[in-house]
Amino acid sequence: MKLTLYTDYSMRVLLYLGANSGRLSSIAEVAQAYGISQNHLMKVVNGLARAGYIESVRGRGGGIRLGKAPEDINVGVLVRYTEEGFDLVDCGSCVIAPACGMTAVLREAVSAFLSVLDGYTLADIMARQRTPDGFSLFPMPAAVASG
After folding, report:
1. How confident is the model at residue 146 (pLDDT cuts 50, 70, 90)?
2. Other residues' Cβ atoms within 10 Å of the Cβ of residue 82
3. Of 36, 10, 40, nearest to 125 (Cα)?
4. Which CATH number fits domain 5-138: 3.90.1530.10, 1.10.10.10, 3.40.50.800, 3.40.30.10?
5. Which among 20, 4, 3 is positioned nearest to 136, based on CA atoms?
C-alpha cells in the first residue's frame, strides 16, 4: 500500500508542530525543515486546519500550531481523513470479481493496515522521533534560536 504525498506531508506538518509546540511556526519554516515546496504545504495546512488538527493564527506574528494535543491525534483517523480511498485494485470492473476470493483478502489486508495505525497517536510517533543522543530531529530555526 502506498500513501499519497498529501498524507505524508500532513504527518510531517503535525510532527514538526508537535516538536515545536511552545510557539507558532510558519509554513515556510516547515517547508524549509523538510526541503519541500511551500506551495504544496499550503493546501495541506488548509486541510488540517479545516479538520481541527491545527490552528492558524493570521496577521503579523501569526503562524500555525497544533489544534489538538498530540495524544488526541490518532494516526489511523488522520490517514483515513487524508486519503481518498483504500481500494488496492479495481475489483468493481473485473469480470471474475463475484467469484474471486482476492477481493476479501485485500479488504482484510487494508483493515489490518488501518488497525495498526489506529493503535498510535501523534504523541507515540513523536516519542519515537528522538535520536539516540536525545536531540530532536529538527534543527531550531535561526529566528527562534537567536530570539
Report:
1. very low
2. 21
3. 10
4. 1.10.10.10
5. 20
